[in-house]
C-alpha cells in the first residue's frame, strides 16, 4: 500500500514538472503543430497577405501564430530596422529637368556673351561701313577669342555679303551675321556624349589643368546622367589631394551615385582601374573617372595621365575623353588642348566658366585647332549649371536683344 502511494506521488510529480516545463518553454502560448519557426531566410517564407509587416503589427495577441508572423517576430526588430533605414537613406536630390535647365542656362549665356554679338550688330548696321568700322569688327572678334584665322575668314565673308546685298536693315544684318557665325561654330559636328556601350559600362575620362572645373563638371554631369535614368559610378583618380576625393564623393552622394576612392598618394591609375572594375561588377551604365589637374608642360604628369588611360584600357575601352578648359583663360587653353590631345586623344571639350566671360569665340578657335567639338559648357557654380553645347542656340544667344 505504501509502495502504491509512493509510486502515484512520483508519477504525479513527474507529470506536474513536465507541464510546468512545457509552459515555460512556450511562453504560455499554444503552438499549433508544425508552425514553430526555425531561423530561415525571409526569401524562404510564403508571401504574407497585404503589405509586409502589417500582419505582425496588428495580430500579435491572436493565437495561433502563422509561420510568417512567428518568423517576423524572431528576426525583425522594428526600432532597429527603422534606425538603419534612416541612416541608409540620405536625402537624394532630384536634378533639375532638362527643359528648365536649358532655358535658364540660355538666359545666362545671353547675359554674359551678347555684348559681343550686339557690338557686331551695331557696327554692321552703321550707315557707312568704312575701313575703320571693319577694323573695329575685326577687333571685336579677336577680343572674343575667335582666333586670327577665323576672324579674317569671317570679316572677308561679311565684307563680301554686305557689298553684294547693300542692306543695312538690322534684321537682314542679323540674319547674315547669324548665318556666318553658325557656319564657323559648325552645327555639323557630332556633339553627343559617348555614354552608351553594349554589354559594359561606358567609360568617361575627365582631364585638364588645375582649377578649370574638372571635379565640378564630373559632379554636374553625374546629375545629368542620373536625370536620364542612368546608373553611374564615379572614380576619384585625383589622389594628389584628399579633399578632391571628398569633393567628388559629396557630388556623387547628393544624387545617390557611389564613388570609388583611395588614400591620398595612391597610384591614380590603380584607382581608375578599380573604379572601372567596380562599374563592370555592378553593371552600371557609365563610369566617370576624375583626374588630378596637371600642367601640360610637366612631362612626368602627362606620362602619368597616359598611364591612367592605358591601365583602364586593360579591361575596357575609354569611350569619351573630356578635356575641361576654362573659357576665361582664352587662347591659353589652346596650348593645353593640343598637348592633352596628344597624350590621351581627347574626344570632346567642356568649356567651363562661360558665365564669367564674353569670350565665347574660343569655341571656334578650339574646334578649329583640334578638330574636337565642344560638347558641354559650364555656366555657373551651381549643381545644374552644365549645358550641352548646341551651335545654333549658342549663336542665337550671342545675337539676342536683351
Ligand atoms: N563660374 C563658374 N565657376 C565654375 C564653373 N565650373 C567650375 N567652377 C568653379 O571653379 C572652381 C574649381 O573647380 P574644380 O571642379 O574644383 O576644379 P578642378 O579642375 O577639379 O580643380 P583641381 O582638381 O584642383 O585641378 C570651383 O570654385 C568651381 O565652383 C563654371 O562653369 N562657372
Automatic annotation (TrEMBL):
Residues 62-78 have a biased composition (Low complexity). This is Signal recognition particle receptor FtsY. Belongs to the GTP-binding SRP family. FtsY subfamily. It catalyses: GTP + H2O = GDP + phosphate + H(+). It comes from Nesterenkonia aethiopica. Part of the signal recognition particle protein translocation system, which is composed of SRP and FtsY. InterPro entries: AAA+_ATPase, P-loop_NTPase, Signal_recog_particl_SRP54_hlx, SR_rcpt_FtsY, SRP/SRP_N, SRP54_GTPase_dom, SRP54_N_sf. The gene is ftsY. Keywords: Cell membrane, Cytoplasm, GTP-binding, Hydrolase, Membrane, Nucleotide-binding, Receptor, Transmembrane, Transmembrane helix. Its main location: membrane. The keyword Lyase does not apply. It holds the Pfam family SRP54_N. PANTHER family: SIGNAL RECOGNITION PARTICLE RECEPTOR SUBUNIT ALPHA. The keyword Cell membrane applies.
Amino acid at each position: 500500500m505504501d509502495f502504491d502511494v509512493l509510486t502515484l506521488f512520483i508519477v504525479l510529480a513527474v507529470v506536474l514538472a513536465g507541464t510546468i516545463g512545457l509552459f515555460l518553454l512556450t511562453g504560455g502560448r499554444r503552438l499549433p503543430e508544425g508552425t514553430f519557426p526555425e531561423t530561415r531566410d525571409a526569401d524562404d517564407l510564403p508571401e504574407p497577405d497585404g503589405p509586409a509587416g502589417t500582419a505582425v503589427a496588428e495580430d500579435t495577441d491572436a493565437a495561433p501564430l502563422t509561420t510568417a508572423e512567428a518568423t517576423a517576430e524572431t528576426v525583425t526588430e522594428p526600432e532597429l530596422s527603422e534606425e538603419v533605414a534612416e541612416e541608409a537613406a540620405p536625402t537624394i536630390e532630384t536634378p533639375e529637368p532638362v527643359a528648365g535647365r536649358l532655358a535658364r542656362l540660355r538666359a545666362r549665356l545671353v547675359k554674359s556673351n551678347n555684348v559681343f554679338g550686339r557690338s557686331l550688330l551695331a557696327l554692321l548696321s552703321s550707315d557707312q561701313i568704312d575701313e575703320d568700322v571693319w577694323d573695329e569688327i575685326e577687333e571685336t572678334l579677336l577680343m572674343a577669342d575667335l582666333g586670327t584665322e577665323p576672324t579674317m575668314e569671317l570679316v572677308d565673308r561679311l565684307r563680301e555679303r554686305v557689298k553684294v546685298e547693300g542692306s543695312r536693315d538690322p534684321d537682314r544684318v542679323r540674319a547674315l551675321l547669324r548665318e556666318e557665325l553658325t557656319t564657323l561654330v559648325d552645327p555639323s559636328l557630332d556633339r553627343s556624349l559617348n555614354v552608351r556601350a553594349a554589354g559594359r559600362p561606358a567609360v568617361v575620362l575627365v582631364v585638364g589643368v588645375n582649377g578649370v572645373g574638372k571635379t565640378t563638371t564630373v559632379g554636374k554631369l553625374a546629375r545629368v546622367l542620373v536625370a536620364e535614368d542612368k546608373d553611374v559610378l564615379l572614380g576619384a583618380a585625383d589622389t594628389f589631394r584628399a579633399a578632391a576625393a571628398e569633393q567628388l564623393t559629396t557630388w556623387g552622394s547628393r544624387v545617390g551615385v557611389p564613388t570609388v576612392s583611395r588614400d591620398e598618394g595612391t597610384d591614380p591609375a590603380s584607382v581608375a582601374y578599380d573604379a572601372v572594375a567596380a562599374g563592370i561588377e555592378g553593371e552600371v551604365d557609365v563610369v566617370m573617372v576624375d583626374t588630378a589637374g596637371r600642367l601640360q608642360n610637366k612631362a612626368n604628369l602627362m606620362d602619368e595621365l597616359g598611364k591612367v588611360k592605358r591601365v583602364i584600357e586593360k579591361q575596357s575601352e575609354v569611350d569619351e575623353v573630356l578635356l575641361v578648359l576654362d573659357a576665361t583663360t582664352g587662347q591659353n587653353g589652346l596650348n593645353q588642348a593640343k598637348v592633352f590631345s596628344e597624350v590621351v586623344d581627347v574626344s570632346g571639350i567642356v568649356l567651363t566658366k562661360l558665365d564669367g566671360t564674353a569670350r565665347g569665340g574660343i569655341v571656334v578657335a578650339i574646334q578649329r585647332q583640334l578638330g574636337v567639338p565642344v560638347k558641354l559648357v559650364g555656366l555657373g557654380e551651381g549643381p545644374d549649371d552644365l549645358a550641352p553645347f548646341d551651335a545654333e542656340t549658342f549663336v542665337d544667344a550671342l545675337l539676342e536683344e536683351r
